[in-house]
């Protein structure tokens, strides 16, 4: 049981003798009844005591000079905190009915007439002291109950939050389990096709047509594997904030049109009725990443729209934004999936034998890339079988002033000689063979020190250098080539499996001219070589 403060009794009387007699009489019972007595010589002093203390009861003399007992009682009960303090008027006169009514109107609960009979005073005081103690005990219990209620409410909120977090974690774990199963499925399919095609190339009875078909399969499935790895890496970088945008003014209408033309040229839109409606609108964006956004949305539309379906791409703008929409007549999105369509690992269909395939991370990556550009993306669908619309919006900027490109002299000096430094035997052999097929004179080396020796003797125009070399790495190779007057002006292209902004920075700081991420597509490699020696390369 918590400790309860002693109730206090206030005695107000202007007569010193009467005040002393009354307080002395009460003091006899103070220890027994467990209360404290406070005295005041005037109404004003009594009011000051009421401001400082809570009282169980006030014994108030009626006839006092200045502020009498009625005025004092009225002042006490006008204050909200002291309005409920019981007041017993003490008087030497027998009060008539009017005086009693006046006293009760001002908050009196009883009268005591002098000379006071001790037994009557004791009985009255005991009642009010007991009531005060009981009220104080109830207040403390109420405070404890309120505190306990607050604690229980907080505990309930915490438990509810923990239960929700656990449900979310379970859903995420389930989604990740499904994702890993899908990833295994998505990786094994192209690997199986590549393995079968490679085996066919080694069969003695294979026709030239079959071998050509097998080569196409290997190339196509290798690109598919590369896209899977790129999506995984890009999502990881985007979610961790490690993607740095190379922002520049660009016309979204041109970019959308270029992306669609690429799809049409490669035949990927042949089975669908694809229409385009664009108007010029300039944004500050990273060309590569915006192409990735558009390509993912177009891939998504093609994937979930049956052959013969319609896909419409539009680019509109207002005073503040440029919006790009990809609308399809395909499978649509159910109401339960629509709010989660941009979450990681979410797909409309999650069975391994689904026709569409994919990892379920494309739209999550799209949303993050749009957000990095300061934009927003939304999805709309009227339900399953009703098609869907994906729209992203980017801040609009004013078109840049036209700049004339400087004219470059172009002389035919032949293809550049190439040095390939790569420690992976198969990778080195295949890339050297491809470069030779394109008419390049190629020398190669298996490690960094050997590569430096070949460079010193061969003096190539360009070197392709793997970063992860044994002995000395590609960074050190580049630094030594730049430090050697004989190889200082050689063009250097880094080949690496690491594509973060930090990796690109280290490559350029080491002295490389370009940075290519493995696996390197032959077309991208030819473009990189051409950019290093634009006048010398003809493919």
TrEMBL record:
Its topology with respect to the membrane? Multi-pass membrane protein
Tell me which InterPro entries the record gives.
Answer: CheY-like_superfamily, HATPase_C_sf, HATPase_dom, His_kinase_dom, HisK_dim/P_dom, HisK_dim/P_sf, Sig_transdc_His_kin-like_C, Sig_transdc_resp-reg_receiver
Q: Which residues form a coiled coil?
A: 128-162
Where in this chain does the record put each Histidine kinase domain?
182-398
> Where does the record place the Response regulatory domain?
8-129, 417-533
Q: Where in the cell is it found?
A: Cell inner membrane
Keywords in alphabetical order, please.
Answer: Coiled coil, Kinase, Phosphoprotein, Transferase
The UniProt catalytic activity note for this protein reads: ATP + protein L-histidine = ADP + protein N-phospho-L-histidine
Q: Which residues carry this modification: 4-aspartylphosphate?
A: 61, 466
Q: Which GO terms describe its cellular component?
A: plasma membrane
What sections of the protein cross the membrane? none
Look up the EC number in the record and give it: 2.7.13.3
Query: Which stretch is the leader sequence?
Result: none
Q: Which GO terms describe its molecular function?
A: phosphorelay sensor kinase activity
Q: What class of enzyme is it?
A: transferase
This protein is called histidine kinase
